Amino acid sequence: MGKQSREKLARRSLGEDGKEKPKFQYQPGLERVCLFVITWGTYLVLFTPLIINTKFFFPFVAPKTIFFRIIVEIILASYIFLVIINRCWRPRINALTIAVALYLAIFILASFTGVNLERSFWSTNERMTGILTMLHLFALFIILSSVFKERKEWERALGVSVIVGVILSLYILLGKEISTRGGGTIGNTSFMAAYLLFDVFFAIILLLSNFLKKSAWGGFWQIFAGTSLLIMTPVLLNSTGRGAIAAFFGGLFLLGLGFLFFSRKKILKRLAWAIVLVLIISGIVLAVFQPSLAKSEITSTLTEMKSRFIVWENGWKGFLEKPVLGWGPENFIVVFSKYFNPCMFLPQCGSEIWFDRVHNIILDTLVTTGLVGLLSYLAIFIIAIYELLRLTPKIVEKRNIFFPLGLSVLLLVYFFQNLFVFDMINTYLVFFLVLALVSFLTQEQTAGPAAIRRVNPVLAFVIIGATVFVFWTVNIQPLRANAYVIKMVSSQEVDGSSSFFQESLKSWMEKYEPREQFTQKMYKAGYQSISEENKESFQKAFNLAEAEMEKSVKQNYLDFRPRLFLGELYISSYRFSGQEEKIVKAEQILEKAIQLSPTNQQGYWNLAEAKLARGEIAQTLSLLQKAVDLEPKLGYSHWYLAMAYKIAGNYQLALKEAYDAQHNGYNWKDNEEDLKKVIEIYQLAGEDPNLINKNDQDLIDLYLGMIKINPDKVLVWAALAVSYANLGQFERAREAAAKVIELSPDLTPKIEEFLKSLPQ
Q1: Which PANTHER family match (predicted)?
Q2: pLDDT digits (tens, 9 = 90+) for 555-587
Q3: What's the rounded Cα separation, in Å, for the pair 417 and 247?
Q4: Is the separation of the CB atoms in 90 and 449 below 8 Å?
Q5: Phi, psi at 39, each rounded to 5°
Q6: pTM of the complete model
Q7: Going from the N-terminus, what domains does the chain have, and what CATH number goes with each?
Q8: To 10 degrees, the CA torsion angle through 375, 377, 379, 382?
Q9: How far apart are CA 335 and CA 119, in angstroms?
Q10: Interhelix angle for 535-555 vs 494-504, to 10°?
Q11: Taking the CB of residue 299, how many other CB atoms lie within 10 A of it?
């Protein structure tokens, strides 16, 4: 686009005097209906972040995404009719459109070359950001950039988004939180902050671009945007999204600096350069001298982000293994398990053991779509910001500079905050809205309507039929399946759970989530007492869970997680039925799981349980020792090894591992059942005459701990009395014996005999 054309475009798109001149005369009939549906459908789809329904599994994600897709499909059908009727509404191809289309194409290609196409296409109930959702976002981008051809239309769209941000903020400020993690209807404060970042900058753009405008609409936007900022900004700043908060302040600075740079006054441009120079010098000084306050803050931040660094390292290793097109979208869980860091169980590493995202947009894109995908993703930002900055100097009326300048800054701060989090439907929606707006600002517009054409009835029937088919297949069926999952999870009857589970499978959507949930439910059932009349129902449920989870293993052949859960299920099924073949299958599947994730302790723990069930105590101890060696600071591993040594009859090593477990965070002293197990080890070890006194002294502490948890344990008081007597603490022995009589008078004769045996 030449210089004259760009100046003409800047005047036409943003206006020289703040007055809008209509360029399109909308035709009556079907064309007007289609435009109405697209316009109001767009306003409606912007309310997606407010959608929530607790009757669905992942209520903050699934209802939102399905709502978004349904509205977009209706808009798309209207747009297809609109293009057929009048060709002037066809997409305008520019550099940004090509970049977005190229990224989508590589996203899809990486899905086919990745390790699990099904997951890449459908995603999961927890995320729902696979190919299907990306296609809907791309459709929305094309439609908006083609249909919204006047500034006032875009101001209204941004205004609607700001209204949504205000409602969300008021809900958080005044309402009762639904999610314990906060975030209002979004359910997570980090995701909420990322979304509000867009609406806050939309309000800033509307405020500054209409500042002191004397028209009625100008005054409205000033009041509306200013009030919205007063409501939304405190919510953003009080969230836990530190990346979004830093991006907000950085964005304000960049916006002010950009205004100085693009000013026609030389003194302001010089001031901008002076500010940049001061910042560079300050950065060098901080790096060289490292003041204690700054150093302390950096150290604290790095400590808190340790788990993120570990996950980032996993992502980098995954990228190096598949550098061109990656592992496929939605498949990072495979990489995370393969390069699992054993310290992930520890509090200092976050205590999170499952990650399906890298939590860094660069590494996330690299590991899932490779270097090709990252370059195409970065191209979107580079082209959008480049085109906006080229447009900015051409704008005549200076307040209008904040439209392209504000969008440039917003894209930068959005990219920055995404270095610490990832996108969900809320941020994807407003991101593609911004891209469509950028496309509008940087492309030539058509001068007027083309010839109106009639729609072939057969073609109309095909369009409507295809829309209904897609509507049912990719929205209604998955939503029904999702609703059955939560019914299955909450059902107390095994037959009901099985029935709901089978209903949840009647969808084309990826079925891993319902299988996993049902498997976990049956895994827990295997450790419960089951009445005789329910055994047949439970056996059928176990068989169903095993058959379905085996399908997940085949479909996710490189994924550690389904093999681990299937192994756990086999062990639980063995406990329930006693069928030897179940434990054999458990060994086989868990051995393969360990091969896929050799540094994950869970594989060794469960395989050790399977070996123990077969009486292979030596292999059990070896596996549990391996788990300890992977991360000696993990108390769970020491505890499991202690229990294995107890079964093996090596009580001294059992006690050693039990106290190592306590030292490394497994606080069995506060758990009655665990405390009872350690007491049993002491009692068994007490047969060694060389250790009687030592054991009695330790046992006293354990008995007192047990009494603190449950002071009415008669047998514990009796055992405490004996231990006091063994150590010669006869007065305390008498006090403990008196407590036994108080709690259980029928034991008085035996206690009196015990008291007579004590020295006077």
Answers
A1: LIPOPOLYSACCHARIDE BIOSYNTHESIS PROTEIN PA4999-RELATED, TEICHURONIC ACID BIOSYNTHESIS PROTEIN TUAE
A2: 999 999 999 999 999 999 999 888 999 999 999
A3: 6
A4: no
A5: -65, -55
A6: 0.88
A7: 3-17+24-455 (no CATH), 489-614 (1.25.40.10)
A8: -120
A9: 14
A10: 30
A11: 10
